[in-house]
Amino acid sequence: MELSDFFTNYTLRTITLGTAILGAICGMLGSFAVLRKQSLLGDAISHAALPGIALAFLFTGVKKQEILLLGALVSGLVGAFWIRSIVKHTRLKSDTALGLILSLFFGFGMLLLTYIQKLPNANQAGLDKYLFGQAATLVESDVWLMAGATGVSLLVLLLFWKELKLLLFDADYTQTLGFNTRFLDILITSFIVIAIVLGLQTVGVVLMSAMLLAPAAAARQWTNKLSTMIFLASVFGALAGVFGTAISASYDNLSTGPVIVLVAAVIVLVSFVFSPERGLLFREIRFRRNRKDLNRKKTLTFMYHIASDHADISHPHAIRILNNFQGYTRKTLNQLAERELIRIEGDQWAMTPKGYEEAATLYDQTPDPV
Amino acid sequence: MNNPAPSTRPPAIQIDDLTVAYNYKPVLWDIDLTIPEGVLMAIVGPNGAGKSTLIKSILGIIKPIAGSVQVFGKPYKKQVDKVAYVPQKGSVDWDFPTVALDVVMMGTYGGLGWIKRPGQKEKKRALEALEKVGMLSFRDRQISQLSGGQQQRIFLARALVQDAAIYLMDEPFQGVDATTERAIVNILKELRQSGKTLVVVHHDLQTVPEYFDWVTFLNVKSIASGPIRDIFNDDNLTKTYGINYKVATKG
Predict the structure, then answer these.
(1) Distance from A369 to chain B by nearest Cα, in Å?
(2) The CATH number fitting domain A5-278, selected from 3.40.50.1980, 3.30.465.10, 1.10.3470.10, 3.40.50.150
(3) Cβ contact B142:B99 at 8 Å
(4) How far is it, in rounded angstroms, from Cα B109 to Cα B127?
(5) What is the pLDDT of residues A56-109, one digit of tens each?
(6) Which of B87, B99, B118 sits opposite A170 (nearest CB)?
(7) Do B117 and A170 touch (CB under 8 A)?
(8) Span B91-111, pLDDT tens digits
(9) Could you give phi then psi for residue B199, rounded to 5 degrees?
């Protein structure tokens, strides 16, 4: 496949548009899951959707996409709210509840799938594509459905922005202000379920949670503002969709869903290493710079104590007398000299008035303004 | 030193027969408590005495097994605009992507109601509250980069913005330094002077007589409640903490 095909090939264009929209909606709603510490909710819900697909097929006997996804939606919602009620009414913690529902529903779904495969019906093959997804089966109507769902969830997000933000940060407080937190919770959970169901065809049950989490986790690295984070997560999700589809189309037989997830993982990796404030790289650089800075200050303080014993603070001393103190190197001395905090002449150093003053006030902390 | 409201008005908070249990063991047992308007009250009691639970029950966050809570004579749900809540600092994730001013602005959300967004008027109120707690210069600071005492002040500012009649605070002095403690106490006293009612979960028994004018002793049951000078004594402390208490009750 040539790159030029990418823009002219109708099927490929449809698939690319579909995966881009899917990435965007997943990034947007995934941000909520991540910030609510419900990262694994997506995993549980997507697995919980599997028996719904199988049951929808068993009851109707047809393999129409809409019907199967409706089944997935119902079963995903049942799973999600079952988890909620387990956490609320028992002493089990949410990770246990998530694990329980995930394995229970997935196990039941697999059971039904194998049962369906043994049915004497030529129509049954292909339900297992929902396990890992098959982006190639995306058609225009699927894309319209995704675009519609994205539009609606964006609208709801903008409408209830203030309330949802409050809920994410402090749920108890939200309730004391008179907002119905249950309504908000059901709202956001339902939209997460919808996003997952929309992604099953493309990415599949097993990898779906990565689509929710990866863009959000990456976006968190780049900003300290909620709106920016959600916007970035949508962009990252869409990029993963576009590049994932392009890569998988450029090589034969590469399954699209896993490639999209891998691209998303690369975005996460880059964000974790290179983001300026939270990234590992810059943190390490900052750490080293601070350590050097600390060494310089230690040296300066030591010099200050020597200099303050003399009437003339700029009286020169031999560098040798710093020897019993480990915090300095030639380089740090030169750096201090560059800043005109000390003067170096031959193997002697002397403090400047500026350096003396700086050393005297080095670790003074003014108390918080009250 | 107390100037209770005329007796025709209902008390700020009236609790009758309140019982709360998480599992089998009751956390609060048959609490009857009247908090008059205009007091600055400490709730004291050992760990696990149900102090936070009592506050959360008043706010309707926790549903009791039995009993009722009335705020100025009506259920809390009808009085949400009259009550401000300062939760424990540790109850939220401070790594949330937002800045100090934004958190304080949240105090205006209740008054705005559903959907309506805060505007310039709300922002001005939030800035005033930030200034009051001495945090104006930190308005754009990411909240995870604030110290514990600063985070506590942000929570206090958020409650101040609500301009409520009753303030319920869960351990506002926890983990703050002496300067911040002093600043918070001054704000509490100022609020009381302007006629507000304050209910504060407090741990440091030494400072109770200095900071507060009213006290409730709580240990699952309500042991005693009233003016400091009448009931803050070794007898009630012993009943509440179960060991022989000798706190020098200064006059």
Answers:
(1) 6
(2) 1.10.3470.10
(3) yes
(4) 15
(5) 998 988 888 889 999 999 999 999 999 989 988 888 888 899 999 999 999 999
(6) B87
(7) no
(8) 999 999 999 999 999 999 999
(9) -120, 120
